[in-house]
Amino acid sequence: LTVSAWDGGGLPSASNAAVTVNILQTVLVPAIFERSRYSFSVPEDAPEDSMIGTVKAREPPNSLEVVSYRICSGDPHGRFSINPQFGVIRTKKQLDHEAQSVVVLTVQSQLGDSPVYSSTQVNISVTDINDNPPMFLTKSDKVTISHTQPPGTAVYIAHAEDKDSGLNGAIKYSIASKQSDAFSIDPSLGVVNLTRTVFAEKQQEYTLHIAAEDCGSPPLTSFLVKTRTMILYYINDNSPNFMSSPVSYVMENVEVGFLVHHIIAKDPDEGRNGQVMYHILSGNENKAFVLDKITGLLTTAQFLDREVQEHYSLTVVALDDGSPALSATQVLTIIVLDVNDETPEFLKQLYETAVPENRDPGEFVVRVEAVDRDAGLNSLLQYEILPGAGYEKFKMNSDSGELVTAASLDRETQKVFSIKGNPSRSSTAQLYLTVLDENDHSPLFAKTQYQISVTEDLEEGSAILDLSASDEDAGLNGEVMYSLIDDTYGAFAIDSVTGSIVTTKALDRETKSQYTFRAVASDCSPHFPRSTTVMTVLIQDVNDNAPKFEQSYYKASVWEGQSPKTDIIQVFATDLDSGLNGETEYSILSGNENATFLIDSARGILATNTGLDYENTSSYRETAASHQLVLLASDRGTPSLNSTATVLITVLDVNDNPPVFSSPEYHVHVREGIPIGSHITEVSARDCDAGTNAEITYTIISGNDRGHFCLDGRTGSVNLTKTLDFEDTMKFTLVIQAT
């Protein structure tokens, strides 16, 4: 195997490691350490060959081999040694708490010459010794103050650093030489304050010797000479004012030198009185941060670990450069945000349990548990099973770590399961699971579902499918019995011995086109194991339904004179069959002399094929003004089925013929002197149209200017209305109009 390493920032290792895994033919058991982790402590001034602690690995029962120990990682500088026979760990070189305070060793145990190892983690804490005195950053310093500054004014902050930790690194400040009672110093913060007003006329310079002493035993001390010169510049009457936030956040995995916060304080004074410098007064005892006194940039000085310390409270002072110096303090809270850098650890490395076979899925097996020192979502563990032989038969609750069966187990198939599980940032545990035997074989169908198609004209009692299920058991436990569950609507039954499915009644696709039911195979076991398969029977259509018109008799009418292809009526016929058996075609069976009409074979629309003339063909067979057609609806099945319907079409008259007189001229001779009212003659006209279109009205349109005659507009009778005089008028010519 080739293994590569990546750090939290995503940078890969410069080279990869090659791991060779040898597969052994026999099961070898290593010597297991009594604890998965050991913790020891040793002072940093311990001499070489000092005993630190002992690790112990247990030999397997009845083993005659000797256990040997070795340090396999964590000691690149060779500062430690281990007794290979007794597991005693000793110092090999001088230790330094300031260089490395915690050492993590990996120790392996080997049983004789066996190639199998076990390992444990050894955490060694190097405890601090007070071997570093406090150190001032400068040997001397000079400060300018003003005579206007009142008592209590902070004029200087002494700052020393001690590489030791704890009390050995805690510093107390004092004024070593009291040349004047004008100053005092805060022993914890190092702030030098005025105790009274100073006057330049009396003394212009003060020299103070400031001592920095740690709290170790014995304590170590260093000194700083401070020269105070009183020169009156601008009056420093404004203290710095913090502008930056008192809270900052930083991820625990940032590199050393990472910018955590920019501390900003403003001072409105002029010149040096307004120049601000920054110092950390307290809260940085472990020297986790560095503050640039000029820029106010706070950076990390060492790696952070949220699991060791979740937040820091730094007391920061902003000090101007006036004389006397004025200051302001702020407590800066730095909250260390968690990253997922802690590996979960199982409480046990090996879990052993047993579970009966032939139990329903969901059977509880065991609960594994791991812990993670991270916080929030990073500490919420998710458990999973690593792929391996038979792992699919189990299911792990990712939240609780509970392992349950995901399928019924069969001891005859697999007796022992070896399962590995791990949380997401992985730690692994081994689970050995033994399956307890039971009589658990049940019949199994060859398929979980069947789909077949049969025609609807099958005779009752026809076999449609022979089901078969197998049972690995023997004797009565292996004899399979078949049955049906779910409603088959009385259409099917199954032979309990052979598994043959037969029809029990005539099928009709138009009533029900599909049946879905389950068949069950069971054996004679007292536990009643059984298996099911889903049957889907599709009923195929047979052309057993003729198209049926919505009406057996239709009536329609059409005006004469319409152009060919004029729609008259649409008829509909439905066929309950499907496919071609249900597709309907329309045609005219009879009554269509001279092909006067036509029908759309697909849509059933009946239309004119030629122009109709009421006067020439006013009726078709049944009455004086109707036309009777017999229509045929046929399906496309084999053989084709059909039905008929009658359509009575009435041709409606249009006023398309003028009246025609019986004679173009009428000649009448009358005597003069006949009495008024006498009947002269009668005209008659005929109209080929019908109804009101054939009703004729007569009028005299000329020749009767003096009104000698009158005309009956309905009958066409001409009568005398004035006396005739031959000598006056011998002849009258009347023009009569028929409308």
From TrEMBL:
GO terms assigned for molecular function: calcium ion binding
Keywords associated with the record: Calcium, Cell adhesion, Disulfide bond, EGF-like domain, Glycoprotein, Membrane, Repeat, Signal, Transmembrane, Transmembrane helix
Residue ranges of every copy of the Cadherin domain listed in the record: 34-136, 137-242, 250-346, 347-445, 446-549, 550-661, 662-739
Keyword Phosphoprotein: no
Species of origin: Irena cyanogastra (Philippine fairy-bluebird)
Keyword set includes S-adenosyl-L-methionine: no
InterPro entries: Cadherin-domain_protein, Cadherin-like_dom, Cadherin-like_sf, Cadherin_CS
Protein name: PCD23 protein
Gene from which this protein is expressed: Dchs2
Entry GO CC: cell-cell junction; plasma membrane
Biological process, per Gene Ontology: homophilic cell adhesion via plasma membrane adhesion molecules
Subcellular location: Membrane
